[in-house]
Amino acid sequence: MVLIYTTKATARLQYTAAFIFKEIIKTPYAITSHADSFRKFDGVKINYTGEIIAEDELIIPNCGLLFESGVRPVSIDAFEFNGSTAFFKSPSYKPVSATTTPYHKEYAFDIFSATFYLLSRYEEYLPHEKDKYGRFHHTNSIAYKENFLHLPLINIWLKDFTETLKKYSPVINYQLPSYKFTPTYDIDIAWSFLNKGLARNTGGALKSLTRLGFHSIFERIKVLAGNEKDPFDNYDWLHHLHTKFEMKPEYFFLVAEKNGLYDKNISPRSEAMQLLIKEHSGKYKIGLHPSWQSGENEKILKNEKQLLEKITGSVIIGSRQHYLRFTLPAGYRRLLDAALTEDYSMGYGSTNGFRASVAAPFFWYDLEKEEQTKLRVHPFCFMDSQIFFSKKITLDQGYNELMHYYTVCKNTGSHFISIFHNHLLGSDNIEWRKLYERFLANAAAEKSGVH
To answer: Fewest C-beta atoms under 10 Å: which of 64, 65, 87, 438?
Structure first.
C-alpha cells in the first residue's frame, strides 16, 4: 500500500491521486494528515509537504498548485528527466551523475501537480486565441511548445514513477495497464449519393460537373440506378475487418435534423439511415456525434440524443463532438446536463497528438467548480482527416504517422484510440483503404504475438 502525507487533502490532490493509483498504477493508497501515523506506516511513504517527516519516505516536491483554487498564469520551465520532458522541477534536483546521493529520495519534479495541470486542461481556461472554429488550438499548448505533443507523457512519467516506488517496497504488486486499441468511426455523411433526395442529388450533380467533370456524374448515375455501390458504403467491408482481426470498434452517428454549413448528414428520419444505425447498434457500441448546431444549444443536443435513443432502443451515454467543437468548461457541462457521461472528443482538430498528454481514460475535473465530475474522457491521438486536409502529406507518410501513435501507445501500455471516417475510407480511395487494412493486420499480429 502507498500512504501519502499532506497538510490538506484538497479536491485537486484527491483527484490526481485517484487517477495515478487507481487508473494507472493500480495499487491501494491512502492520504493522511497525521504525521505519527505516517512515520509508523509499513509501506511506501510519500511525503507531499516539503518538510522531512520520516527517514524512509519519498519526497514529492510540492509546487503549491494542488492547494490553490481557480486558475492563474503558471510559469512552466521544462527540463529533461530520464529521457523525457518534465516541469515543476524540484529545487534540489540534480542528475544522478552529478551527485553521489541517490536523487530518488526527493523526486525530480512535482509529478502530482504536473499530471493535474495536463489532465485538467488547465491551460485551456487561461486567455488564448481560438482557431477559426472557436476551438483551443494546439499551438497554444505546452505540449506543442515543448515538443511532446506526439507522446503520452503522463503514461511515460507514471511508468518511470512506478520504478521509483519499487525501490521503496519491491513486494508491492503494481499492475500497470496493458496496451489496448479501439478503432472509432465518425459517420458524418453515411452515403455519397444514396438517400439524399432529388434536390440534394441535383445540386450535387451540378457541383460535380463544375469541379470534377463528367466522371463523377456518371458515377452518381450508376449508383442511383443500382448498378454500382455507393463509394461511402463500406460498412460491410469494415465489419469484415473487425471480425477478421477481432476488433471492438465504436461508431458515432451525426443525426442533425436540419442540415447546415457543417452538418451535411443524411436525414435521421429516413428509413435507410435508421436501418444503418440499428444494424450497427446491434453489433457495436455506438454514440452520438453532436451536430455543429448543438454546440451552443443544449435543447438541440438533448433532442439529438433522444432521437438516437429512439432509433436504437437503448440509452446513449457516449459522444464525440462534430468538428471536435467544444470549449471548457461549458462544452463538457452541456454533455453532463444531457446525461452524456462518456466523451471521445479530447484531441485536436488541427493536428494529431495527445491533447491531454495521456492515452488512458480519465474523469473530467471542472476547474471552476473545483470538483471531479462523472464525465469520463477517452482521449484519441490520431484522426485520418489530419492526413487529408490539415497537413496534406502523402498517404505513406500518413501511414507512418499512424504507426508512430500505435507504437508509442503499445510501448507505454496505453490506450490507443483512432478516428476514421467512412467517407475517407471510401471505395474511391483504394490506396488508403489498403493501408488501413495493413495497419489493422499489424495491430492484430502484435496482439496475438505473431510477427
So the answer is: 64
The Cα–Cα gap between 413 and 24 comes to 10
CB 174 within 8 A of CB 240: no
198 contacts: CB under 8 Å, gap ≥ 6: none
**What is the model's pTM?**
0.93
Residue labelled with grid coordinates 439524399: 196
Q: Which of these CATH numbers, 3.40.630.10, 3.20.20.370, 3.30.540.10, 3.20.20.150, describes 180-192+231-448?
A: 3.20.20.370
How crowded is residue 279: how many other Cβ atoms within 10 Å of its Cβ? Answer: 12
Largest CA-CA distance found in the chain, in angstroms, rounded: 83
Tell me the sheet residues that pair with 86.
79
Which segments in the chain show pLDDT lower than 70?
95-104, 197-216, 446-451
Cell numbers representing residue 260 in the block:
447546415
Q: Give buried/exposed letters for 122-160 (b at 16+ CB in 10 A, else e).
A: bbbbeeeeeeeeebbbbebbbbbeeebbbbbbbbbbbbb
Paired with 182 in beta bridges are 417
**Length of the chain as a residue count:** 451
pLDDT of residue 309: 98
- Could you tell me which of 186, 237, 265 has the C-alpha nearest to residue 429? 237
- Cell numbers linked to 233: 458504403
* Domain boundary assignment for the chain: 2-168, 180-192+231-448, 195-229
- Please say whether the beta carbons of 192 and 223 come within 8 A: yes
For 5-34, the pLDDT digits (tens) are 999 999 999 999 999 999 999 999 999 999
- For Cα atoms 259, 260, 263, give the angle at the middle one, nearest 5 degrees: 70
The identity of residue 355, as a single letter, is R
pLDDT at 13: 98
Report whether 288 contacts 319 (CB < 8 A): yes
Strand 371-377 relative to strand 362-366, pairing:
antiparallel
d(CA 414, CA 164): 20
> What is the model's pLDDT at position 97?
54
Query: What pLDDT shows up at residue 294?
Result: 96
- Phi (first) and psi of residue 362, to 5 degrees: -155, 155
CA distance 375 to 362: 8
- CA 92, 95, 96: angle at the middle one, nearest 5? 110
